[in-house]
Design goal:
This protein has 145 residues and is an alpha/beta fold. The protein is built from six helices and five strands, in the order αββααβαβαβα. The protein is globular, with a radius of gyration of 14 Å. The mean pLDDT is 92.
Amino acid sequence: MTDEQYMQLALKEAKRAFDEGEVPVGAVVVMNDRIIAKGYNQVEKLADSTAHAEIIALTAAFNFLGSKYLPEATLYVTVEPCLMCSGALYWSKIGKIVWGTDDEKNGHRKNTSPNNPFHPKTELVSGILQQECAQLMKDFFKARR
């Protein structure tokens, strides 16, 4: 599958969050062309400010593999990771992170520029299905205002 196809699956998770009244961020973890974990924002549902899509997907991947490191895995997430999620991704030693749309307000670059908060070996790709990912966020916040 392509980055776009995996991002479509992350978007499906984000739509699940949207439908549950959560900020619509979704994530999937892929290893060896196989999805090993999924996650979507569940902050309100779990009353847990750390229940971001990336954290939930990472925890599921760690549990699936029985390992605390993911150097051979790729995370697909619809929105640029925040600083908290960036820290978790750093410690996971994940091989690649692909995100859809940037988050100028809460993304990791707002709080770390010019430093890179990810593991030095982690490959970063952004802008995959950017329009679709951004539109879902816009629709969510427009409905709330």
